């Protein structure tokens, strides 16, 4: 009887996980199609001002309503999501490259180099990401690339730790010892045996970093330190809608907020499925 109950629970969990993955995949596909197809197909200026149509609630003409100067919120949300995804993806890739290089260097060198590098990682990790990001952005003029630099330089630390642990684990494998005993150089061992084993974890770290980067960019732009206020991004849209919210107009805040939450949850859902796939032990534990 107990075995039947456990099998039923495992089946429910597997079906729930499959439904979650499918939903996340559909949402991510919808986001990608929106940012790729809407700007070329909709020949409208997202900066066009129409004071006669300001702060109109959602309707057939404007499904998300309009903002305080009459701009269509649906179009601005899509453009804002486009900018935020650009920042998130580029920053995640750069941070993953930095973290992979630092973690691999620490693990491959060992000794005092490993200890020194990891102590530097601990020092950087002790500073809050947002505070360090504000300090970096403050040194540049507002724009996309200062935000990318800020996010990349504050989000590589966890990747460095993951890659270091993975390389140390791979170095103890018998086939690596056999390659070294056979006269293979360190470079050949790293390229042929260590790097392929690290890439899945590094790729997963990059995907998981995208939602963090989007939230980081949104926070900086909301504080007025990221993108300039006239440029549509999810953070600037929420920031510019504060006055409307206090006046009782909810749609200029709700829809940009949903455009932040839904894509990041969808990306995180796909990343969780990837993590279970590359870690069979964890997946078997979840099925119990």
UniProtKB/TrEMBL annotation:
Keywords: Cell membrane, Membrane, Transmembrane, Transmembrane helix, Transport. This is ABC transporter permease. Residues 81-271 form the ABC transmembrane type-1 domain. It is found in: Cell membrane. The chain crosses the membrane at residues 21-42, 83-108, 120-138, 144-163, 194-215, 254-274. It comes from Streptomyces atriruber. The keyword Membrane applies. InterPro entries: BP-dependent_transpt_permease, MetI-like, MetI-like_sf. It is a multi-pass membrane protein. Its main location: membrane. Belongs to the binding-protein-dependent transport system permease family. The keyword Lipid biosynthesis does not apply. Pfam families: BPD_transp_1 (PF00528).
């Amino acid at each position: 009887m107990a075995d039947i109950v456990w099998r039923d629970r495992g089946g429910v969990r597997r079906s729930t996980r499959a439904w979650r993955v499918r939903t996340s995949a559909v949402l991510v596909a919808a986001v990608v199609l929106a940012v790729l197809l809407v700007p070329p197909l909709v020949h409208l200026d997202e900066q066009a001002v129409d004071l006669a149509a300001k702060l109109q609630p959602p309707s057939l003409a404007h499904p998300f309503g309009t903002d305080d100067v009459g701009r269509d919120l649906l179009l601005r949300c899509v453009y804002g999501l486009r900018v935020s995804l650009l920042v998130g993806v580029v920053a995640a890739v750069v941070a993953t490259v930095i973290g992979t290089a630092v973690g691999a260097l620490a693990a491959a060198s060992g000794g005092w180099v490993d200890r020194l590098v990891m102590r530097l990682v601990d020092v950087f990790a002790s500073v809050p990401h947002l505070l360090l990001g504000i300090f970096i952005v403050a040194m540049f003029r507002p724009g996309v690339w200062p935000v990318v630099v800020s996010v990349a330089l504050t989000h590589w630390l966890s990747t460095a730790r993951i890659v270091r642990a993975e390389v140390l684990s791979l170095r103890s494998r018998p086939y690596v010892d056999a390659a070294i005993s056979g006269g293979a150089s360190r470079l050949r061992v790293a390229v042929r045996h260590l790097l392929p084993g690290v890439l899945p974890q590094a790729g997963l770290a990059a995907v998981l970093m995208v939602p963090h980067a989007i939230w980081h960019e949104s926070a900086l732009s909301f504080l007025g330190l990221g993108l300039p206020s006239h440029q549509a991004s999810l953070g600037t849209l929420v920031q510019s809608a504060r006055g409307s919210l206090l006046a009782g107009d909810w749609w200029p805040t709700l829809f940009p907020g949903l455009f932040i939450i839904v894509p990041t949850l969808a990306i995180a859902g796909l990343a969780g499925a990837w993590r279970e796939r590359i870690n069979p032990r964890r997946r078997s534990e979840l099925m119990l």
